[in-house]
Amino acid sequence: MNFSGWEIMLVVAALFLLFGATRLPQLAKSLGQSRKAFKEGMREAEEEEAAERAKLSKASAPQVNQLSDEALAEEMRRRAEAKQS
């Protein structure tokens, strides 16, 4: 979509007529603040999601390949006792 100079001038003139010269800077400022707040919210949501994923990976049961034979046998005994109780 390519806009010619006349089309852009027509849009700007319509904006001046609709909102007035004093409201346009306020409108642009509020649009910028809204965009900034949206980006900040998205960034915070991504950080929370990453922190939650990290927390879940740390809180999970120990991996079998990370345990020694004795620790593995103890874990199996503990789970068998918990299952019987």
Word description of this protein:
There is one protein chain. The protein is an all-alpha fold and 85 residues long. The chain has one domain (5-84). 80% of the residues lie in helices and 0% in strands. The longest helix is centred in the middle third of the chain and has 37 residues, at 23-59.
Brief summary of the model shown:
By secondary structure, this protein is mainly alpha-helical. The chain has one domain.
Tags for this model:
rod-shaped, 85 residues, single chain, mainly alpha
What is the 3D form?
rod-shaped
Mean of pLDDT: 84
Considering DSSP H and I runs of 4 or more, what fraction of the residues is helical? Answer: over 70%
Low-pLDDT runs: none
Number of helices: 3
Topology of this protein?
Blueprint: H1 5-19, H2 23-59, H3 69-84
